[in-house]
Design goal:
The structure holds two protein chains of two kinds. By secondary structure, chain A is of the alpha+beta class. Chain A contains three helices and four strands. Chain A has helices at 16-26, 47-51, 70-84; strands at 2-7, 32-37, 40-43, 60-66. Chain A has a four-stranded antiparallel β-sheet. In chain A, a hairpin with a 2-residue loop joins β2 (32-37) and β3 (40-43). In chain B, α7 (188-196) links the parallel β5 (175-180) and β6. In chain B, the strands form two sheets. Chain B has an eight-stranded mixed β-sheet with strand order 1-8-7-3-4-5-6-2. In chain B, strands 9-10-11-12-13-14-15-16 form an eight-stranded parallel β-barrel, surrounded by four helices. Chain B is an alpha/beta fold. Classes of the chains: A alpha+beta, B alpha/beta. Chain A binds chain B through residues 11-13, 15-17, 19-20, 23-25, 43, 45-49, 51-52, 54, 56, 75-76, 78-80, 82-84, and chain B through 68, 71-72, 74-75, 78-79, 82-85, 111, 114-115, 118-120, 122-123, 126, 129, 337-338, 340, 342, 345-350, 352, 467.
Chain lengths: 85, 540
């Protein structure tokens, strides 16, 4: 199990395009991946679920990854989130 | 005359005839289904067709607008692929034993609800996306193809609202303006219309009750005013506004072909900065003397893998040939952790601006660098190409590059592939280090180009995109001007030329300073070339 936290720096928050790019990234891995924000949890491979979390600039998020390819997924997702959000 | 008000979504004033576009919302059929699994298959087939249709639209959109703006079509595809959405529809089909159209429609309403109850206006607009994809799905049922809007007269289009797919197709017709009853500054209408350069006004709530086909209408995309059936006075004053704009455009037109020379005879070259081969037309139309900066990153970004030598060669060759002997300075790749090239798997960095990027990548992963150098060298046989290295901080870096460069040239010679043996090698001066040791660097290269954007950030230790820094960030800071002056002095002492390719080059309040300092070339956005030429010619 891999976990990392991050605070959103993009002033537009997690809107449609970045949510879509995140889903695209997450779908490359088999592991179960979730995002927790504002006391809600969503599957990182489901775009509507992510968008409905209402993640804004300054929102802390927690990404949890569990599965065979969790190492690779953690590195890729952490990098993706740090550089795009 | 009737004055309607909406949101200015894409600027520009146009006068024209109105065409009202009706969507004709069809009744959603609702009937029972016995063989639910067949109906599921019918749904899945339509879903796949809708996704394919969006893929085609996305690819075409990339030729018209930027990747960021075309992304909406990718997001719509992902929505159609979302498990929650798909499961919701299939559940309704199976449990209620009803047809796909009905199941999709109910699901669309449910999902749209989630967004309409959110705080941000941006999120509320996403409800629209849910309806768009659902309607697209329904229209793809049973192998039907969605009809396109094609308008072949220059008209102003009025509609309740348009889907992104419909807007992106407008350019191929002759729509000169767009007015919608719905939408907002955050809607696709605004974003895509701007990207396509079509004036647009959205949120004109009483539009459809007042708009009639063939009406004369004036629209101002900046302030959202719509004049239906304008009176003489309005027609005259708005026509004057349009004329003023055309006059300015004509004034600049007249500068084409004129030399960049001050009234006392001081000369300077004017080049253009381009980001891809698509910008070439603008370079020629705006009469730039050269391409002072050809950013090669576009070949590496928006890609699923590294561009091959052939792919790169093709692009560099087109630019070299199109410029027909005018100089083209190709900057080697300046990608890093903060640019979108995920296939390179760069480790995440906390400070990408000061990280593994530019020449550092090329020196540490020379296999990437040699491919690019080979492609550029091969293209040099077809025009006047020079190479420029980004992010240089030391003489050592330049010398290390020269070793790689020499071996690439040797290979090409052995393979009997022609290239310009006198090709010039220059560097960006965009780090304080480079500016300060520019006397040493000038002995190693054939030219400098000052990248003022990054130079300013690193010198002031400020992020130019940080809204909190406001007035602290001074692009005219004495330190920057001093570094530029020092760089020019060192360059000329060593017999090499120096240009500026950063944003400061198009700052006409500094043109005189740059001329006085002895800058040899200003390279600016193609759309700024004529304005800078005007400034130069107006100076003493």
């Amino acid at each position: 199990m891999k976990i990392f936290t991050y605070t959103i720096k993009d002033d537009k928050g997690l809107h449609a395009r970045p949510a879509g790019l995140l889903v695209k990234e997450a779908k490359m891995f088999n592991s179960k991946i979730t995002i927790e924000a504002n006391d809600k949890i969503a599957d990182l491979k489901r775009i509507f679920a992510i968008m409905s979390l209402g993640v804004k600039f300054g929102t802390p998020i927690t990404i949890t990854i569990d599965g065979e390819d969790e190492e690779a997924a953690a590195i890729a997702l952490e990098y993706h989130i740090r550089t795009n959000l | 005359m009737l004055l309607l008000k909406g949101d200015g979504a894409s600027c520009g004033i146009v006068i024209g005839q109105l065409v009202v576009y009706n969507h004709c919302p069809n009744q959603i059929p609702h009937y029972s289904i016995e063989e639910t699994e067949n109906e599921i298959k019918r749904f899945q087939k339509a879903r796949q067709n809708a996704i394919s249709a969006l893929q085609n639209i996305y690819i075409n959109a990339l030729t018209e607008v930027s990747e960021e703006n075309a992304a909406i079509f990718e997001v719509q595809q992902m929505m159609l692929d979302d498990l929650d959405y798909i499961n919701a529809i299939e559940d309704i089909i199976r449990l209620q034993k009803v047809n796909t159209e009905y199941a999709v429609n109910i699901t669309a309403k449910k999902f749209a609800e989630i967004f309409t109850h959110m705080e941000e206006e941006y999120m509320i607009c996403r409800a629209r996306d849910v309806h768009d994809i659902s309607n697209k799905l329904i229209s793809c049922l049973d192998g039907k193809k969605t009809k396109q809007i094609y308008i072949d007269k220059p008209v102003i289009l009025a509609a309740d609202d348009l889907t992104p797919s419909e807007i992106i197709q407008l350019k191929s017709g002759k729509v000169i303006g767009l007015i919608t009853a719905q939408g907002s500054a955050n809607s696709h209408t605004a974003i895509l219309a701007q990207a396509l350069g079509i004036p647009a006004v959205t949120a004109v709530t009483n539009l459809l009750t007042n708009a009639i086909d063939n009406m004369t209408v004036i629209m101002d995309g900046s302030n959202g005013s719509i004049y239906l059936d304008p009176d003489e006075k309005t027609l005259t004053s708005m026509s004057e506004k349009i004329d003023c704009k055309h006059h300015r455009e004509k004034q600049l037109e007249e500068l084409k072909g004129k030399p960049n020379i001050t009234q006392s005879g001081l000369k300077i070259k004017l080049g253009a900065n381009i980001s891809s081969t698509k910008d070439l037309i603008a370079v020629l139309e705006n009469d730039a003397d050269s391409i002072g900066l050809f950013r090669s990153e576009f070949l590496y970004l928006n890609n699923k893998k590294l561009p091959t030598e052939e792919e790169q060669f093709a692009s560099y060759k087109i630019v070299a040939e199109t410029m027909a002997g005018k100089p083209v300075v190709i900057r080697t790749l300046d990608i890093g952790a903060d640019k979108n090239a995920p296939y390179l798997k760069f480790p995440p960095e906390y400070n990408p601006a000061m990280g593994y990027r530019g020449i550092r990548i090329c020196l540490k992963q020379p296999e990437i660098f040699t491919v690019q150098l080979r492609a550029i060298l091969r293209a040099s046989a077809f025009g006047n190409i020079s190479i420029m290295l980004p992010m240089i901080t030391s003489v050592q870096e330049v010398q290390d590059v020269k070793i790689i460069f020499a071996s690439v040239k040797t290979s090409l010679l052995q393979e009997k592939i022609s290239f310009d043996k006198n090709i010039k090698l220059g560097i960006m001066i965009e780090t304080p280090a480079a500016a300060i040791i520019s006397d040493d660097l000038a002995k190693e290269v054939d030219f400098f180009s000052i990248g003022t954007n990054d130079l300013t950030q690193y010198t002031l230790a400020m992020d130019r995109q940080n809204p909190n820094l406001g007035s602290f960030f001074n692009p005219h800071h004495k330190a920057i001007i001093r570094l530029i002056a020092q760089t020019v002095e060192n360059a000329h002492k060593n017999g090499i030329w120096v240009g500026i390719c950063g944003e400061l080059a198009s700052d006409t309040s500094l043109t005189k300073t740059f001329l006085d300092l002895g800058i040899d070339e200003l390279s600016v956005s193609p759309y700024s070339v004529l304005a800078v030429r005007e400034k130069i010619r107006s100076l003493e």
